[in-house]
Amino acid sequence: MSNNGSRPSLALDMMEELRPYLVDRLTLSLVNNRQLSSKGFEVKESGGALMDEVTRKLVITAWQKWKQEEIIHPFLKEKISAGLIPYAQALLLA
């Protein structure tokens, strides 16, 4: 674990484990289903990109729906919603 002084490194380390399943999978699904495209982003002079309001609402709605999907946790062998995965992982770590 790293400690850069300004962020809780444990939280960042835990999120890195979950990022592919929680974030990347949703993002790729939205792109593959052509719900998300470059047209929904404004590229700033600094090189950063901002979502427009329509895209932001689409992503938030998709995220809320995605969090409700149920999975069988690979270690607990219990059905939980995807939104509870970070909580379950934190409990297991504790």
Short structural description:
With 94 residues, the chain is an alpha+beta fold. It has helices at 9-32, 53-68, 85-93, and strands spanning 41-43, 49-51, 70-72, 79-81. It has one domain (10-93): Up-down Bundle (Four Helix Bundle (Hemerythrin (Met), subunit A)), CATH 1.20.120.
Topology:
Elements: H1 9-32, E1 41-43, E2 49-51, H2 53-68, E3 70-72, E4 79-81, H3 85-93
Antiparallel strand pairs: 1-2, 3-4
Architecture overview:
The protein is of the alpha+beta class and 94 residues long. The protein has one domain (10-93): CRISPR-associated endonuclease Cas1, C-terminal domain (Four Helix Bundle (Hemerythrin (Met), subunit A)), CATH 1.20.120.920. It has helices at residues 9-32, 53-68, 85-93, and strands at residues 41-43, 49-51, 70-72, 79-81. The protein has a two-stranded antiparallel sheet. Strands 3-4 form a two-stranded antiparallel sheet. Strand 3 and strand 4 (79-81) form a beta hairpin. The longest helix has 24 residues, at 9-32. The radius of gyration is 16 Å and the shape is globular.
Question: What would you say the CATH architecture is?
Answer: Up-down Bundle
Mean pLDDT: 89
Q: Give the strand order, joined by hyphens, for the main sheet.
A: 1-2
Quickly count the domains: 1
According to DSSP, the number of beta strands is 4
Radius of gyration: 16 Å
Beta strand %: 5-15%
Order of helices and strands: HEEHEEH
CATH level-4 homologous superfamily: CRISPR-associated endonuclease Cas1, C-terminal domain
Largest β sheet strand count, sense and barrel closure:
2 strands, antiparallel
Terminal residue distance: 16 Å
